[in-house]
Amino acid sequence: MLLGLGENVTLLRPEMDHILQCIEGIGVVKAVTYNPYCETERCGVYRNFSKEDFTTLFLDEDIDLRIFTSRWKIALAAEEMGKESLQFYDVSGRAVHKIYLTDASYRQVYLGLIARFRDDRQAVPHIEKPVRKRMEERRDAEIDIEEFQKAWNNMQDTHDFFGLIRKFRLTRMQALRLAPPRRAMQVSLESFRRTIVQCSVTETPVMMFTANAGCVQINTGKLDRIDQDTSWLTISEASGGKVSFNEDAVHSVWHVVKPTVDGNVNSLELYDTEGELIVQFFGYRKPGIAELERWREALGSNLL
What we know:
Elements: E1 9-12, H1 16-22, E2 27-35, E3 38-44, E4 49-52, E5 55-59, E6 64-67, E7 74-80, E8 83-89, E9 95-105, H2 107-117, H3 145-153, H4 160-167, H5 172-177, E10 184-187, H6 189-201, E11 206-212, E12 215-221, E13 223-229, E14 232-237, E15 242-246, E16 252-258, E17 265-271, E18 277-283, H7 293-302
Antiparallel strand pairs: 1-7, 2-3, 2-9, 3-15, 4-5, 5-6, 6-12, 7-8, 8-9, 10-16, 11-12, 11-18, 13-14, 14-15, 16-17, 17-18
Helix pairs in contact: 6-7
C-alpha cells in the first residue's frame, strides 16, 4: 500500500486515538479487521469512543471494537479501485484494521480529517521484519494442574480466562488440554458447521470475535447465509456484516465452557496449526443476562 505514497496514498501522523475520535463524524463506514486466516466486516457509525487502561473501545450495536493502539504504528488514507479508506498497520506493515467510506459517509469530513492529520514528511516509514513471538509450552509436570482447574471453575467472568492463563504461564492450547472435565472438548469442523447452520435456521443471534494483536472486532446478530468458496467459508449476517475464514487453516475446533456470575458461557473456538486463535463464536449475551438457551440447544444437538 505504501507503494502509492504521494499518489493515491497519504501518510498520516500516527496519532491513533485522536484519529479514531474523529471517525464518528464521517458517518456510516465499513469496519474491517483481519488476521492471517479470517476477515470480518460490518457497516455502522463509530460511536461511544472510550478508553480503559490501554484499550480503546467503541461499544455500539453495529461497530463493536476493542483496540490496542500501542500496537498500531502506521496510519494511511488511501484510494484503491475507487474506494476511499483509512488503513492502520503494525510495525511490521501488517494490516490490523481498515475503515472504508460508504455511500452514506460524509466525504468532506473524511477529507478534513486527512488534511488535519497529514504527515508533513510523506516518506515511507520504517518497517521492521516480522518476529513471531511464540510462547513455549512448559512441561505439564511443572504446572499445578489441580490449582489451575480450581481457578478455572471459580471464574466469575469470561475475561478472567486471560488472567488465568497468564498466572499459570500456559499457552491457550495447553490450557484447553488441561482444563477441568467438560470445560474444553475438541470437536469436529463438521459439527461446528452444523451448529452454525442451525443457528441460521432458528434465527439464533451469534457473537463472532475476530482478533489480531492490535484489534478485536465483534459482530453480533442473526445469521443470514453460509457460503463456501473453495476453502473459504463466509457467514453473512442479516445486518449485512460478514465473517470469512479459511477452513484449510483450521487445525482444531474446541467447545469451551467458562463459568460466570450469570451461569456457564459456551464458545466455539477455531485454532490454526500453531495454536493461534482464528475466530470465536458465542451465543448472544450481555452481562447480567444468561446465555441464550437456543445457542445451548444448537451446541447440544450438533457437538456429538
